[in-house]
Write a structure and sequence with these properties.
This protein is of the alpha/beta class. Helices cover about 35% and strands about 20% of the residues. It contains twelve helices and 14 strands. Strands 2-1-3-4-5-11 form a six-stranded parallel β-sheet, sandwiched between helices. It has a six-stranded mixed β-sheet with strand order 7-6-8-9-10-12, sandwiched between helices. It has a two-stranded antiparallel ribbon with strand order 13-14. Helix 9 links the parallel strand 8 and strand 9 (about 240-245). Helix 6 packs antiparallel against helix 11 and helix 8 (about 200-215) runs parallel beside helix 9 (about 225-235). The two termini are about 20 Å apart.
Length: about 375
């Protein structure tokens, strides 16, 4: 369950992506399996942000069987308690530690200074050090693809989006979904309800029901619970899940989901550490890096739509298409990106407007 602060830093992280990798601080190989620690901001549960990271941890552990052992601490608040947990992992001999929420950034940097031979990897932040790397995923790529599905499946030409806070990561997701939808259905429009929370199943469900009452027959969310998918199932409309495949909560409703995939990254990164080749990087990976993937399609999605999405997915993965290729206009008609131009990461990380097709006015970010 990521925090608002974690996501607010996306723009700063985008600027950091262009920086060169910091020097390697080699770690000598210890006897026995490498001890790898994970710090989670919420309970693992069976869906959501932390759940996806834990799937990745398990995949890495299986791939490196006999070479590593892992330990995780869940439901760690961002702040002083996070520093205590991270420090205890380092003191107890963990040679690599993954801290998986933005609010862990400063505690990670602080502890890393005290343990220069320990490797640290921080998810979604922007601060690095000689023994601290950062990583994140290009969620907007999956959003665009899901928007294509929604654009083909809607009958009312209205989609609904339950959103947490109006910060760039959330805004670019809304905009990418809308652009994908309107690329195949120019009549489609997006309605957004902001709930000012990352995780509040009650608010999420109420927001989804409000959108459905306003004509949305496809709903999606940038929040962490399964409530939106459950609401869609109960109301007999379609949904697109986020973070995880939530089809078991909406077997009829869920068309697909935008899922985060960390296993390959964790395996590659820990393998490098085991082999003494790890160095801190600044990673913002997407489809081509296998960090974003669509959940399986609902049987209701025609083969023609699946094929259409597959072609665009391949083009994004090959670097031949970007969801924000101009012309891009905001919903007041102002050109934000000229025809044929492709948005750069720094500009993308500062996105503060709705694109054409999104109703209403974007509230100010706090």
């Amino acid at each position: 369950m990521p925090s608002m602060n974690r996501r607010t830093a996306l723009a700063t992280m985008a600027g950091a992506l262009a920086s060169a990798a910091l020097p390697v601080r080699a770690q000598s190989k210890a006897a026995g399996p490498m001890k790898v620690g994970y710090v989670y901001v919420s309970p693992i549960g069976d869906a959501g942000w932390t759940y996806q990271h834990d799937i990745g941890r398990k995949q890495m552990e299986a791939a490196l069987a006999g070479k590593v052992t892992t330990k995780y601490i869940e439901s760690v608040p961002e702040g002083a308690d996070a520093e205590r947990v991270i420090r205890e992992l380092a003191q107890s001999g963990h040679q690599m530690i993954f801290t998986t929420s933005f609010g862990y950034m400063n505690p990670t940097i602080k502890v890393a200074q005290s343990f220069p031979k320990v490797h640290f990897e921080h998810a979604t932040g922007y601060k690095t050090a000689p023994n601290v790397g950062i990583y994140n995923a290009r969620f907007y790529e999956g959003r665009y693809l899901a928007g294509i599905v929604a654009g083909r499946m809607t009958k009312t030409n209205v989609a609904g989006y339950v959103a947490a806070f109006p910060i760039p990561e959330v805004v670019m997701g809304i905009n990418a979904f809308t652009r994908g939808m309107r690329s195949v259905n120019p009549k489609a429009e997006m309605k957004v309800v902001w709930i000012s929370s990352w995780f509040d199943p009650g608010k999420e469900r109420t927001a989804a029901e409000t959108l459905i009452s306003q004509g949305a027959d496809v709903v999606t969310h940038h929040t962490d619970s399964t409530a939106v998918v459950q609401a869609a199932e109960a109301k007999g409309v379609y949904a697109v899940s986020y973070h995880s495949d939530m089809s078991k909560y909406g077997p009829k409703a869920q068309l697909t989901g935008v899922t985060h995939v960390w296993g390959e990254y964790y395996t590659k990164t820990v393998t490098a550490a085991v082999e003494g080749k790890w160095k801190p990087g600044s990673i913002w990976g997407g489809i081509k890096d296998h960090m974003i993937k669509l959940a399986p399609f609902n049987a209701a999605v025609p083969a023609s739509v699946r094929d259409e999405v597959g072609k665009i997915e391949a083009a994004i993965g090959a670097g031949k298409f970007h969801p924000f290729t101009g012309p891009v206009k905001d919903n007041e008609g102002k050109e934000r990106l000229a025809s044929g131009k492709v948005i750069d990461d720094a500009t993308l990380g500062k996105m503060d407007y709705y694109v054409e097709g999104v109703q209403g006015k974007l509230p100010a970010s706090k």
